[in-house]
Amino acid sequence: MAIIEVDELGKKYGDQVVLGQVSFQVEEGEVFGLLGPNGAGKTTLVECVEGLRRPDSGSTRVLGFDPLRQGRELREHIGVQLQHTQLPENIKVWEALDLYASFYERPRDWRELLERWGLADKRHARFAKLSGGQKQRLFITLALVGDPKVAFLDELTTGLDPQARQATWELVKRVRDEGVTVVLVSHFMDEVEELCDRVAVLDQGRVVALDSPQGLIEGVDSEYRVSFRLMRGHSPDPVYLLGELPGVTSVSRTGDLVVVAGRGDFATTVTTALAREGALVHDLRIDKRTLDDAFIALTGRSIEV
After folding, report:
1. First to last CA, the chain
2. For the chain, does the N or the C end have fewer beta carbons within 10 angstroms?
3. How far apart (Å, rounded) are the C-alpha atoms in residues 132 and 89?
């Protein structure tokens, strides 16, 4: 069941096209990713969907509401963590939650949220004294205080250290497990691979692909490598046969180390050929194709982080 429907959404700033007829749907209960480099139009897109920015063309429905005409009703059912979120330095954690709860007709008990999201011991701490991870935990809690059906999380882990990023990922999984549909805006490949059920890849204001992370990886014809060490004593040398196999683009050898590059399912072909020739190998490694490989294949460039 689609709870977000975006149809031919367009937005310009002057002569610059920021969004070019973007269309997609978000299904209930999924973590849906918007992936792209800075300047791809991700934040403008999600702000249009939230009703914070007016598009020039196209339409959007969120939970059946028009974000522009029914923004007040919609905001009772969504939670938002903006890309650049800040609170007064001296506001206490409980004060922020109490304030945000007052914005909703039927908010969740923020005291229960403090316990549930590991902020009970920071109840009286001032915002400026929180660590980066604790601030993100607070921002997620603030996005959930209205008991939303959909949560928009924009660039959630930018600036966090690896440990805090991992902890934040676990929080997102918990949000999903509680039945909240999540729209996650990110330019981190590992984050999208870890969290998202489906992802729309944005480049220069357009959706260039939409699939699961694994589907995107498997759907592009990107090159990867297989390496192994050949045990001595085999004759004839099977390495010279590998260059003729389907999908293989290059074969290099340094001593007993052999590196084979190729596309498609060439790894299976290589290992089958080695077994047929009776070649004994060890340290066999197959490079994992990544979402970054897929992004490069789709856009011709890598995301600069």
Report:
1. 34
2. N
3. 13
The tokens describing 149, both together, are: 């059906």
Q: Is the pTM of this model over 0.85?
A: no
The hierarchical CATH code for the domain 223-288 is 3.30.70.100
* Orientation of helix 132-144 relative to helix 93-101, angle to 10°: 20
Every domain of the chain and the residues it spans: 2-218, 223-288
Eight-class DSSP state of 197 = S
CA angle 119, 139, 188 (to 5 degrees): 115
213-249 pLDDT per residue, tens:
989 988 777 778 899 988 876 555 777 788 889 989 9
Half-sphere exposure of 231 (CA within 13 A, CB side): 8
- Contact (Cβ atoms closer than 8 angstroms) between residue 18 and residue 12: yes
Contact of 33 with 211, CB cutoff 8 Å: no
Question: CATH homologous superfamily for 2-218?
Answer: P-loop containing nucleotide triphosphate hydrolases (3.40.50.300)
| Neighbouring-strand partners of residue 210 | 200
**What DSSP string runs through 201-247?**
EEETTEEEEEE-HHHHHHHS---EEEEEEEPTT-SS-THHHHTTSTT
Q: Which amino acid is at 129?
A: K
Asked, colleague to colleague, whether 2-218 and 223-288 share their fold, the answer is: no
Q: What is the pLDDT of residue 225?
A: 87
From the list 24, 4, 185, the residue with the least C-alpha distance to 77 is 4
Q: What is the DSSP letter of 128?
A: G
